[in-house]
Design brief:
With 108 residues, the protein is of the alpha+beta class. It has one domain (2-107). It is built from 3 helices and 5 strands; from the N terminus they run ββαββαβα. Strands 4-3-2-1-5 form a 5-stranded mixed β-sheet. The longest helix is centred in the last third of the chain and has 11 residues, at 68-78. The termini are far apart.
Length: 108
């Protein structure tokens, strides 16, 4: 399993995220993941939750309400291999509402 800490941004939104690709790294993980029904086929299967540990966690982008989390979750899955810790997932930019992506608050 691989984890990434990301910065979720939207208009007026800043949410630190924890994203975990739950593809197994070893036989014990593989057995447990297969036991609960995950395909373990090498394609990103990403669970997303708030980094502070409050709220929900899901690997289903359709389980979220609103627009920010579903759009971000789909984008994280699609771009998993390009993402690194600290990257900004900017929903306004993804939806072409802005011309440039937001920069991380850590550089402000």
């Amino acid at each position: 399993m691989k984890t990434k800490a990301l910065e979720l941004r939207d208009e007026g939104t800043f949410i630190p995220l924890l994203a975990v690709d739950i593809n197994p790294d070893n036989d014990a993980q593989r057995w447990l993941m297969r036991r609960v029904g995950y395909p373990c086929d090498g394609e990103p299967n990403v669970i997303v939750t708030r980094l502070e540990g409050t709220g929900s966690a899901s690997n289903d982008p359709y389980s979220w309400g609103g627009r920010t989390f579903p759009i971000a979750h789909h984008w994280i899955i699609k771009h998993w291999h390009e993402l690194k810790d600290g990257d900004v997932v900017d929903v306004s930019f993804i939806l072409h509402e802005t011309l440039t992506p937001k920069t991380s608050e850590r550089f402000a």
